[in-house]
Amino acid sequence: MNDMRFSDDDVFLAQAKRALDDTVQRVDARLAGRLQRARRQALANLMSRRPWKRWAGAVAMTSVGLLMVLFLANRPDIDNHGQPILEDVELMASPENVELSEDLEFYDWLADSTTNG
Amino acid sequence: MAFDSKVQPIPDRPGSVCLDRKVHTLNRTQALDRFLATVERRALRMAQVATGNNDEALDLVQDAMFKLVQRYADRDGSEWGPLFHCILQSRIRDWYRRTRVRNRWRDWFGKPRDDESAAEDPLETAVDPLATPDEELKRKRACAALDAALRTLPLRQQQAFLLRAWEELDVAQTAAAMKCSEGSVKTHFFRAVRALRKQLGEHWP
Question: What ipTM does this complex have?
């Protein structure tokens, strides 16, 4: 590939740039019109933008978060129930529990002991 | 295209800050309009090369315009170019990933791929009224050959080539737009040039 010397790259790149510029001139009118409409729509958003709207979302999110924290922190039963829920999850996830749930004799025994007890 | 983004009140006029803010927004809108008008067609061509589909390309460019206006309108005008390309290339990458996943599923179910049902490229049919028929034909062939060669490149090489050679972004700006290292940009660009020259041959254009 002797004809592909690095020094020729500049010539090639200039020709490629020209060809690409050429294709831009040939974008058909229908597509160019749609592109122009898209630009106007994007810019219309800027004109209708209100400065306070930029902060409204962030303020709303922060307020909701703060309310949630306050609500959870002030619940009197949260300490009593938070721990058992975690323990339950731990128990359900433990391998012994899976083995136990597969043991049908255990359920028979449990039913008997509940009726007799 | 840069201008002062601070709003100065006019002395002795109540409510002048509000008026100035409106004038400022109008100026900024006009500056953005000028900027987008200069880049939109090239952006569309880039997206067309990447997607091979006019509607998809238009959607990607429109998305990039919205994002630029929505998030970066207040930035200095000199930053808009690199930012716009950063957004556009990010959109193109996302589109590319989505299409790859969708095509995998289509292959799985035996449906035709997205790129097989792409619409006809209007560049192939558009006519330049100023050129003679021979010149016109030669230029059209050169453009079509370059387009076809570009479409065979991997996406990263395509992006590196278009941003460096056409948009004339420097290596650092291209790396920012492509979200990769400067070394990767150099490698992708080098490979792209080699591959294109090999494909287009000695006598192109």
Answer: 0.73
